[in-house]
Amino acid sequence: MYFNKQYFQLFGEKEFDTYEREQIVAIKDEIERESENYILNVNETEFINYITNKYVLKEPQFDYDNIFVSTYQKDIEGKYWPRRYNVYDDKFYSVDVVNFQIKLDNIFKLF
Fold first, then answer.
1. Do residues 111 and 63 share a domain?
2. Minimal CA–CA distance to 109: which of 53, 55, 28, 49?
3. Rg of the chain's alpha carbons, rounded to an integer?
4. β-sheet bridge partners, residue 103
5. How far apart are the C-alpha atoms of 43 and 21, rounded to whole Å?
6. Can you give the pTM of this predicted structure?
7. Where does the source fall among the domains of life (predicted)?
8. What is the pLDDT of residues 6-51, one digit of tens each?
9. CA separation (Å) from 18 to 70, 72, 101?
10. How far apart are CA 42 and CA 90, in angstroms?
11. 108 pLDDT above the threshold of 60
């Protein structure tokens, strides 16, 4: 079994915590760009709803009718195998890799 600690990435583009920090900065910037007069006179509930709706991360919807599965073999170095396997750290071992591809909807805001 191949264990390689990786951070969660949005479709290989960036780590989620980076995306989250960028969104927080964008929200702060948008609020600070508003004039003092606007902030003092705007309906607070409506402004909060506007900001929330603009920056909310919508939950992706899985398209279960379009799932594709592919397999291939990959050579993994022994040092990445769990210790319970009798392998040598400096040798490579062939493993089967299963790749699941599931189409998602509601992801356009992530790019």
1. yes
2. 55
3. 23
4. 63
5. 27
6. 0.51
7. Bacteria
8. 454 555 567 778 888 999 999 999 999 999 999 999 999 999 999 9
9. 30, 31, 24
10. 65
11. no
Task: Give kind and range of the element (H or E) at residue 77.
Answer: strand 61-77
Q: Are residues 21 and 47 in the same domain?
A: yes
Q: Which structure tokens are listed for 68?
A: 């594709």
> Cα–Cα distance between 88 and 76 in angstroms, integer?
11
Main-chain phi, psi angles of 31, to 5 degrees: -65, -45
When divided into structural domains, the chain yields a total of 2
Question: What is Dmax (Cα atoms) for the chain?
Answer: 70
Cα–Cα distance, 92 to 36 (Å, whole number): 63
The three-point CA angle 12-16-18 to 5° equals: 105
Show the domain range for 97.
59-111
Domain identity same for 83 and 40: no
